[in-house]
Amino acid sequence: MSPSSARGLAWPTRIELREMLALAAPVVVVQVGLQLMGFVDVLMVGRVSAEALGGVALGNFYFFNIAIFGMGMLMALDPIVAQAVGAGDTGGVRRGMQRGVVLALVVSVGVGAAYGVSGIAFSLLRQPPAIVPLARDFVQISIVGLPPFFTFIVLRQSLQAMLSVRPVLLAMAVGNAVNLLANWMLIFGHFGAPAMGVAGSAWSTALARWVMCATLLVAGWPALRPHLTGSWRAAFAIGPLWRTVALGMPIGLQWFFEAGAFAMATLMFGWLGTVPLAGHEVTLSLASLTFMVPVGFSAAAAALVGQAVGRRDMAAARRHAAGAWVLGVGFMACSGLVMVAVPAAIARWFTQDPAVVAVAASLIVVAGVFQVFDGTQAVASGLARGTGDTKVPMLIYLVGFWAIGVPLSAVLGFRTPLGGVGIWWGLTTGLIVAAILQTWRVQRRLRLDIERVMVEHPADGS
After folding, report:
1. What pLDDT sits at residue 403?
2. N or C: which terminal CB in the chain sees fewer CB atoms within 10 Å?
3. Beta bridge partners of 448
């Protein structure tokens, strides 16, 4: 990298803002759609029994906290494909996408192995014996849906890098419809199907993931065909494959560190009791929902900034970065103000239990405070991916969440009268540190002329 003549972020024009919104809005819908599958599973199984509800909730919790590492690894495609698109390198796009499919299958094996020992993990985490077998069955059946799940992510990221998102929206809509119908059939035994309860929910979600991936492949085929047909020989070259893994692994760890911190907070609330845990779940559900918006802008930023880096237009990259922050952080500032202003009213959307409402209201105020920082770090994460910066952000998240956030949560939660509120203030402090450091890092990089990410070397023969 060499110093650029234009330093600092430039104010985005209407063109950049429109491009950012046009790409981010569908991505937000897709992210909500991914969450909706788990929500529907829990909602429908809840009619079977309390144990079934607990089993699916615990199973989904384990599924995503393990899968998130693999999902993050595949985000290596953001800089590789987007920058190749920006550079007009069709061969680079093809090889990057094909390697992504290969890695998706490899990741499926690794994650599947972790799911195979889920029963042991649940026992070690001292989960209720009545729901452990149900959660274990849910997770282990979910292994069937891992190859299409991770392949869907590869195809989705590639299409987003090419600014083609309509096929992804269609696939998500079809997948959720199939999941809803199959849940109704297999959980309760309609249309001659056996009533399988928790297992039926797991099978329906696995089926939905296969249908969703197939739908995306068909709907996106005009854009995908030039890159998925022809020789795949270069996709199996060890050197580029390993360098793609080296680029994506820090992203996987970064996401794992963040998700793991909130998972640890959930365990802490479980130690405080049922009512605090319920209030925490309400607040976490709300924060997760609002978080989908900056995640959308994060993905859009990764694609647009990546393309700009690929065509060596750093001025456009800076404008896209500023646009992502204006829109993503702006939304989170508004949502934060609402949370701080009417926390109890928001809590009543989720529950009418007065004790739970009281706990949730106190936590929602804290969540409202961290909204701006959550949006800031989410957008910065996408910008970092777009520029190909993955190792330093991983270390930032390790420090922010695990050197500061989690230990401070434990101290404030169990060594002071703050209790659950202290746990959330600890997480918020870690989040603030991560947001500040990540933003400083991204702005520093955007002042430079960033070279395109290249995982292929002449010696590879690609």
Report:
1. 96
2. N
3. 3
Cα–chain center distance at 129: 30
Identify the DSSP state of 457: -
Paired residues of 449 in beta bridges: 2
The total of other beta-carbon atoms located within 10 Å of residue 79's CB is 31
Q: Which of 79, 153, 85, 30 is nearest to 390 (CA)?
A: 79
**Is residue 358 within 8 Å of 343, Cβ to Cβ?**
no
CA distance 457 to 394: 25
The helix, strand and coil proportions of the chain, stated in percent and rounded to the nearest 5, come to 85, 0, 15
Short-list 103, 84, 63, 72, CA closest to 250: 72
Structure-block tokens of residue 13: 């024009």
In terms of Cα–Cα distance, which of 400, 367, 394, 374 is closest to 298? 374
- Give the Cα-Cα-Cα angle 2, 386, 35 (nearest 5 degrees): 165
What is the C-alpha to C-alpha distance for residues 229 and 350, in angstroms, rounded to an integer? Answer: 48
Question: What is the rounded CA–CA span in Å between residue 338 and residue 362?
Answer: 14
Evaluate whether 168 touches 213 at the Cβ level (below 8 Å): no
List of residues 6+ apart from 340 with CB closer than 8 A: 365, 368, 369
Place of tokens 């500061």: 404
Q: Smallest Cα–Cα separation from 366: which of 396, 395, 343?
A: 343
Helices (H), 76-220: 77-87, 90-116, 118-124, 132-142, 146-161, 166-188, 198-219
Among candidate residues 185, 164, 167, 165, the one with its CA nearest the CA of residue 175 = 167
| Structural tokens at position 26 | 């569908």
Q: What crossing angle do the helices spanning 221-228 and 198-219 adopt, rounded to 10°? A: 80
For strand 448-449 and strand 2-3, is the pairing parallel, antiparallel, or unpaired? antiparallel
CA-CA distance, 95 to 311, in Å (whole number)? 18
Using DSSP's 3-state secondary structure scheme, residue 3 falls into: strand
CA distances from 278 to 207, 270, 363, 419 (A): 31, 9, 11, 14
Task: Give yes or no for a contact between 302 and 247, defined as CB atoms under 8 angstroms apart.
Answer: no
